C-alpha cells in the first residue's frame, strides 16, 4: 500500500503570510499550434509539502541539496495526536524507543479542505521538540504549514534545525492509519536551497 501524503500545488492553495501565491503559467500549448505543452512555475521554496533544511533559519546552515538521503528515506512512525491546539510531551507517550522519523497526524489534515490559510492549526510545543531531539529523532513531519505556532517566532524550528533535525511541513495524512511505514520524501535538488517542495509518500 502506498499513501501519497503530499498536497497538490495549485494557484489557490494556502501559503504562509508574505509568501507569493503559486503561479502555473502556460508557456506553450499544443491546442494553440505549439509542438508541446510547457508551463512556467513561480512559487516559494516553502510552498505546499516542503522540506526545511537548517539554512531556513540558521545562517550558514546546511542546504536542502546537501541533506543526507538516509534521513529522508526510511522507517517512519505516523503518530496520531488528538490535541486540538498543541503537541506536548504528554502527547508523545507511546512513541517507541529508537524511532528516527516521526510524522504527526492531527486535525490539521482536515484543514486542507477549507479555503484559504487557516491560523488555528496544531503546532509542536518547543519542549516536545526537545523531547524528540533527546531521543534521537532525525526527521519531524507535520500536517500543516509550520511546526511553530502562528506569529510566535521560530523557536521550534530553530531548536530542531540547530540539532540537524529535518523538518517536513505541509503533509496531508488523511486516510493514513497510525503506525510504522517506510517514508520517501525527496525535495527538489535546489543548489544552496533554504528549502524545497517535495513529493512525500508512505509505503506499508
Describe what this molecule looks like in 3D.
The longest helix has 9 residues, at 126-134. The protein has helices at 69-72, 108-111, 126-134, 155-162, and strands spanning 2-4, 23-28, 38-42, 50-52, 73-80, 86-87, 101-105, 123-124, 139-141, 166-169, 179-187, 196-203. By secondary structure, the chain is an alpha/beta fold. The chain contains 4 helices and 12 strands. The strands form 3 sheets. It has a 7-stranded mixed beta barrel with strand order 4-10-9-7-5-11-12. It has a two-stranded antiparallel sheet with strand order 2-3. A two-stranded parallel sheet has the order 6-8. It has one domain (2-7, 44-203): Glucose Oxidase, domain 1.
List the helices and strands and how they pair.
Layout: E1 2-4, E2 23-28, E3 38-42, E4 50-52, H1 69-72, E5 73-80, E6 86-87, E7 101-105, H2 108-111, E8 123-124, H3 126-134, E9 139-141, H4 155-162, E10 166-169, E11 179-187, E12 196-203
Parallel strand pairs: 5-7, 6-8, 7-9, 9-10
Antiparallel strand pairs: 1-12, 2-3, 4-10, 4-12, 5-11, 11-12
Helix pairs in contact: 3-4
Number of strands: 12
CATH topology, what is it called?
Glucose Oxidase, domain 1
Task: Quote the beta fraction.
Answer: 25-35%
If helices are DSSP runs of H or I spanning 4 or more residues, what is the number of helices?
4
**Distance linking N and C termini:** 5 Å
Known CATH architecture: 3-Layer(bba) Sandwich
Detail the poorly predicted runs. none
Cα-atom radius of gyration: 17 Å
Main CATH class: Alpha Beta
Choose one word for the global shape.
globular
Main-sheet strand order equals: 4-10-9-7-5-11-12
Q: Percent helix among the residues?
A: 10-25%
Query: Sheet with the most strands?
Result: 7 strands, mixed, barrel
Amino acid at each position: 500500500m502506498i499513501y501519497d501524503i503530499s498536497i497538490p500545488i495549485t494557484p489557490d492553495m494556502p501559503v504562509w503570510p508574505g509568501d507569493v501565491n503559486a503561479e502555473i503559467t502556460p508557456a506553450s500549448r499544443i491546442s494553440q499550434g505549439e509542438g508541446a505543452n510547457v508551463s512556467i512555475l513561480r512559487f516559494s521554496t516553502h510552498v505546499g509539502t516542503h522540506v526545511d533544511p537548517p539554512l531556513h533559519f540558521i545562517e550558514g546552515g546546511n542546504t536542502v541539496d546537501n541533506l543526507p538521503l538516509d534521513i529522508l528515506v526510511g522507517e517512519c512512525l505516523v503518530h496520531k495526536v488528538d490535541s486540538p491546539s498543541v503537541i506536548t510531551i504528554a502527547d508523545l507517550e507511546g512513541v517507541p524507543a529508537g524511532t528516527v522519523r516521526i510524522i504527526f497526524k492531527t486535525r490539521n489534515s482536515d484543514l486542507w479542505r477549507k479555503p484559504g490559510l487557516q491560523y488555528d492549526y496544531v503546532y509542536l510545543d518547543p519542549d516536545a521538540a526537545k523531547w524528540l531531539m533527546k531521543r534521537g529523532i532525525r526527521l519531524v513531519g507535520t500536517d500543516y504549514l509550520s511546526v511553530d505556532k502562528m506569529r510566535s517566532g521560530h523557536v521550534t524550528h530553530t531548536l530542531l534545525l540547530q540539532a540537524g533535525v529535518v523538518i517536513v511541513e505541509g503533509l496531508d495524512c488523511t486516510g493514513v492509519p497510525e503506525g510504522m511505514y517506510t517514508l520517501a520524501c525527496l525535495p527538489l535538488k535546489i543548489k544552496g536551497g533554504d528549502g524545497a517542495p517535495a513529493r512525500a509518500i508512505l509505503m506499508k
